[in-house]
Amino acid sequence: MEPTTDPTAADPARAGAAATFTEADLDALRRARHQLETPPLGMKLAAIVGAPVEKLIARLPGVANDKVIDATQAALRKCLGLALKTLGRQGALVTDASRTSAKPSNLLHKFAVATTGAAGGAFGLFALPVELPVTTTLMFRSICDIARSEGEDLASADTQLQCLTVFGMGGRSAADDEADFGYFIVRGALAKAVSAASSEMATKGFAAHGSTALLKLMQTVAARFSVQVSEQVAAKSIPAIGAVLGAMVNTVFIDHFQQVAHGHFTVRRLERRYGEAAVHAAYDAIDVSLD
């Protein structure tokens, strides 16, 4: 008779948290860590376009940086306006939000963003001010849909801002030292700004649109998100990229942030059940070599 093997022996997360975490929740946390510590967007785009994104960024015209910053700010303002207008209206951000247990419509949102990418691929950088706000709003709705599927209340100001901050968690920049320490460090850096903005949204609603706390949060998220937008624009800067490759780039773009959203809201769901400290400890104990 062969000796039985202990499934927790190869995984410290299971060994340390088996007494409290169910097997299903530990597996969900493992998937969340994989999604949150996923390779940077630039690496994914490089695999699609066949060239290092850093070199493509260097080839962009000088005016491109200003266009990216302006378009990023406009895109996030549109998302923030959508959140404020729908504050307190459960289900207004997603069409199928009546049941919190329903799966998110990831494929539908990917198709919509691929369509905007096809249009952007035909017009290049000139299409950015028009395309990015539309693409980002579609991504924001997808992120909200994922949050709803993990039990979040979309009528809550905090939930809507958590959806917005996913754009700030979706990548790592050489200029962003915090990103090198992983998900919990980046999330912690955003937490204070989220808390202040959430309080203002909860009390002032749409009147909070120009508040200092909300603007500070949006600027923080925009600074991180603009790095990912620059990589997306660079991938689309290849001559004669065409509609097909433009659609592929946008599909990779939204898939990246959907993965981050799934990871983030899975962690929050588990924290509501087990507590933040227990989830953080189990997350850190996961052996990434087994992913």
What do these coordinates show?
By secondary structure, this protein is mostly helical. The protein has one domain. Helix content is about 70%, strand content about 0%. The longest helix is centred in the last third of the chain and has 33 residues, at about 240-275. The radius of gyration is 20 Å and the shape is globular.
List keywords for this structure.
69% helix; 0% strand; 291 residues; single chain; mainly alpha; globular
The total of beta strands comes to: 0
Average pLDDT level: 80
Count of folded domains: 1
Radius of gyration, taken over Cα atoms and rounded to an integer in Å: 20 Å
Distance between the termini: 30 Å
Note the total helix count.
12
Strand percentage, roughly? Answer: under 5%
Please bin the fraction of helical residues: 55-70%
Structural class: mainly alpha
Tell me about the largest β-sheet. none
Low-confidence stretches: 1-10, 12-18, 95-99, 173-179
Order of helices and strands: HHHHHHHHHHHH
Shape: globular
Write the layout of secondary structure elements.
Layout: H1 12-17, H2 23-36, H3 41-49, H4 53-58, H5 63-85, H6 106-123, H7 128-149, H8 157-169, H9 183-204, H10 212-235, H11 242-274, H12 276-285
Helix pairs in contact: 2-11, 3-10, 3-11, 5-7, 5-8, 5-10, 6-7, 6-11, 7-8, 7-11, 8-9, 8-10, 8-11, 9-10, 11-12
